[in-house]
Design goal:
There is one protein chain. The protein contains 6 helices and 9 strands; from the N terminus they run ααββββαββββααβα. By secondary structure, it is of the alpha/beta class. The chain folds into 2 domains: about 35 residues; about 190 residues, Peptidoglycan recognition protein-like (Lysozyme-like, 3-Layer(aba) Sandwich), CATH 3.40.80.10. The strands form 2 sheets. A 7-stranded mixed beta sheet has the order 1-2-6-5-8-4-9. A two-stranded antiparallel ribbon has the order 3-7.
Length: about 230
C-alpha cells in the first residue's frame, strides 16, 4: 500500500508539471537570475539591447496607443561630477524618485531596456504639446521615453548642479557622443516598427524641453537634432 501511495503521489507531481504548474516556478527562477545582472536580449526587430527592468512594476498599464517619443538627458553629475555616467548610480536615481524611461542609451551606445512599452512610464510629467490639447499633463500615456546619458550646458544644468560642481565635469562628458546618435537612430527604427502611430518627424519625436519648457531643459541645445534621420515632408 505504501508503494502504491508513493506511485500515486509521483503521478500527481508529474501531472502538475506537465499541466504547466511549474511555469510560475520557472518565471521566478528567471526573474531572480535577471536581478543578479542585466541580460542581453534581442528585441522584436533584432536590435541588441540590455534588459534590466525596473523593480517597481506599478507603472500604469498603457491603455492609449503611443504617438510620440520623448528624449531626455540624465547623469549623476550632481553627486559625482568627475564620473557622472556610472550606470548603477543613474539607475538608483530612477529608483529613488520612482521614475523611469522605457530605454536608456549610455555613452558607448549601449541600449538599456528598462520598462516595457506596454507601460505608461513616468518620464514626461506635466506639460503640453501644440496641436495635442488632450495630452496636457498626460504625455506619459501617449509616449515612449528615451534617456541619453549626457550633460547640457552650464545654464541648462543650473537646476541640478551648482556652477562650481559643473566646472569639475571633464569636457568629454559634456554633450552627446556619435555612438549615442547611431544607437538612437537604430532604437527609433526599432520602436517605429512596433508603433505605427509614431512618425519619424519632429512632430512625433520631441525633447522634454519642448513639452515642459518652463520646467525642463533636456535634451538641450547640445543635442544635434540634424543627426537624427527624419522623414520630414
Amino acid at each position: 500500500m505504501k508503494k502504491k501511495g508513493k506511485l500515486v503521489k509521483l503521478g500527481m507531481l508529474l501531472s502538475l508539471i506537465l499541466s504547466g504548474c511549474s511555469h510560475g516556478i520557472q518565471e521566478e527562477t528567471v526573474a531572480k537570475a535577471e536581478e543578479k545582472e542585466p541580460l542581453a536580449i534581442l528585441s522584436e526587430t533584432r536590435l541588441a539591447v540590455t534588459k534590466d527592468l525596473m523593480p517597481n512594476m506599478n507603472f500604469v498599464q498603457r491603455s492609449n496607443v503611443p504617438t510620440h517619443i520623448v528624449l531626455h538627458f540624465i547623469s549623476n553629475a550632481a553627486l559625482n561630477p568627475e564620473q557622472p555616467y556610472i550606470y548603477e548610480d543613474i539607475r538608483k536615481i530612477f529608483n529613488d524618485y520612482d521614475v523611469s524611461p522605457h530605454y536608456m542609451i549610455d555613452r558607448e551606445g549601449k541600449i538599456y531596456f528598462l520598462l516595457p512599452e506596454t507601460r505608461a512610464a513616468r518620464h514626461a510629467g506635466k506639460g503640453s504639446i501644440e496641436g495635442y490639447t488632450e495630452y496636457e499633463d498626460l504625455l506619459n500615456k501617449y509616449s515612449i521615453g528615451i534617456e541619453l546619458m549626457a550633460i547640457g550646458t552650464e545654464e541648462e544644468m543650473q537646476q541640478i548642479i551648482s556652477p562650481e560642481h559643473y566646472r569639475q565635469i571633464p569636457a568629454e562628458h559634456i554633450g552627446y557622443t556619435e555612438a549615442q546618435y547611431q544607437a538612437l537612430n537604430l532604437l527609433i527604427d526599432d520602436i517605429l516598427e512596433r508603433n505605427s502611430m509614431i512618425k519619424r518627424d519632429r512632430t512625433h519625436i520631441i525633447g522634454h524641453d519642448e513639452y515642459a519648457p518652463e520646467r525642463k531643459t533636456d535634451p538641450g541645445s547640445l543635442f544635434e537634432w540634424e543627426k537624427l534621420i527624419m522623414n520630414e515632408e
